[in-house]
Amino acid sequence: MPADSVGLVTPQRVSIERALTLDCGRSLPRHDLMIETYGTLNADRSNAVLICHALSGDHHVAGFHSLDDRKPGWWDNCVGPGKPFDTNRFFVVALNNLGGCKGSTGPSTLNPDTGKPYGPEFPLLTVRDWVRSQAMLADALGIEQWAAVAGGSLGGMQVMQWAIDQPQRVRHALVIASAPKLSAQNIAFNEIARQAILSDPEFHGGHFYDYGVIPTHGLKLARMLGHITYLSDDAMRAKFGRLQRANQFSFNFDVEFEVESYLRYQGQSFVDRFDANTYLLMTKALDYFDPAREFGDDLVAAFARAQAHFLVIAFSSDWRFSPARSKEIVSALVKARRSTSYALIDSQLGHDDFLMPIPQYHRVLHAYLDRVATEVGA
Amino acid sequence: MNPSTPPALRPDLALICDWIRPGSHILDLACGEGTLLAHLAAHQQVTGYGLEIDDDEVARCIDVGVNVIQADIDDGLRDFESGSFDYVVMTQALQALQRPDEAIAEILRVGKVGIVTFPNFGHWRVRSALAAGKMPVTPALPDMWYDTPNIHLCTVNDFEALCSQRGWRVLARRLLDRSHQEGLRIRLAPNLFSEVALYMLQAPQAAGESR
User: How many angstroms separate the CA atoms of A351 and A316, rounded?
Assistant: First the structure.
């Protein structure tokens, strides 16, 4: 076990026994959230940090579930003793969002009314709904105000929504590789991913659990498409180029180029760990996200409510949520005169760079979070 | 975040602080490690942002709690609204820009008042180097001609000619020698004896507005 790892961690189930009214008009009488926490909540409960996950993330952010695990949690390089989210100072909370498929209430969990999985009966959610659910989690943990809320991509959208909807409860907002709303191109990619799943015969209108099958093909295609958007053209060229498995063309549709092999592998391994209904729900939450909407499409007015200090980070090679999208956020924050810093990280990989231990990126996070920790007496 | 209290300020920055009203909202272009903003925030309740392109400087700004936006001045200030800052400050960066004139016009659009400082290329040391047939290397301009970031040097006279041509109002001017003093010689022959020039400017249409 590396010295800077949080070590072995055990997920916990938190039952929220309160009704949650959703943007779609429906409500859930109760829901469960799977969480992991690292570090210790201090006596005045001022050192708690919430980490929000992206499309396919979950509560397992750092450490290992067993000594046999090959890989640690998805942001292990950033969370641990001495790391940017220093667990010697902060109490870090990570969750699997409502609607997820890693133990939190979602489409694949049992509907108490029917005794069967919710499937397509599970309501579609918005980022606002997640913030409401996460605020209930904060209540359950006795956390009045987060020292920081942080997240990349879809996680960064939750951070912005937190700062707007719960201004008193967020001291610092770390918005990484995100966007103030999806572009038409972003929505178009999501729509193709959804159509891949919806048109898979094994999807059965979302009731595939009842048939003992999963829409493997559709989910795999959706993930393959997603992966293309997570990598830059340069990164794909560097990683695969036009490398072939054999010297000759085989003139058929088997895997010939290494990039095909990579995408098929990524697609297949995703099918084994993710739920198709959750994928659909997550992509819709992305599409719906638009915090300016309830403020007359004025992002400045939306951010004017926020009281948090903001750190916005973008990556030069990210084209899915490019630096220009982060600049939209920064520009609105500056117009709203919010306390804001913006770092543009020189990078190669693409959108996935927000998960990578790029030295300048971690240096900026370290510097910022050190000050946060000092400020809250951690 | 409350910035850390910085150490004593460079004399030219201290003079700029004298020009800035407490409680103002400021944009500091090419802010470096955020010294000026940290000082103004700590002593004059000033809010605002620094603009900086360099990775190391950005990290240092965040270290000391100065709000910094990583961007290139040459890419423009178009993301900033007109008149959205009480002061836009740019110290010792004018001569390194692609288009100093356009940058000043943008400074005076975004800021109600602009504060610009630059090394005076009319200083006698510069002139004597040129008279001897050499590109000047002086305390204010320490780089060799082949590796200097300075591509648009000007004299005090050149600068004032540009100001009057564009109709920019000079609200205040300080001309300093190497030890940041204003002596008799500078008063008698400013373009010959000043090494550092500080100007407070205002756009023509803003004339009469707040200072």
Answer: 9
Q: Where are the alpha helices (DSSP H) in chain B?
A: 11-19, 35-44, 55-64, 100-110, 124-131, 156-166, 184-188, 190-193
Say yes or no: B58 contacts chain A, CB-CB below 8 A: yes
Q: How far apart are CA A251 and CA A242, in angstroms?
A: 16
Indicate whether B62 belongs to any domain.
Answer: yes
Question: Rounded to 5 degrees, what are φ and ψ at A270?
Answer: -70, -40
For the question of residue A318 being annotated catalytic, the response is yes
CA pair distance B25, A315, nearest whole angstrom: 29
A15: tokens are 């039952």
Q: What is the ipTM of this complex?
A: 0.94
- Closest-CA residue of B relative to A337 is B48
- What is the mean pLDDT of the segment spanning A242-255? 89
Best B51, B70, B82, B88 member to test A by mutation, with max A CBs in 10 Å, is B70
- Chain B hits for A330, CB-CB cut-off 8 Å, are 69, 79
Q: What is the three-class DSSP state of B58?
A: helix
**Quick check: B181 pLDDT over 90?**
no
CATH number at residue B113: 3.40.50.150
Residues of B in contact with A329 (CB under 8 A): none
In this structure, is residue B150 part of a structural domain? yes
Report the Cα–Cα distance between both ends of chain B, in Å, rounded.
28
Please report, for the domain that includes residue A196, its CATH number.
Answer: 1.10.1740.110
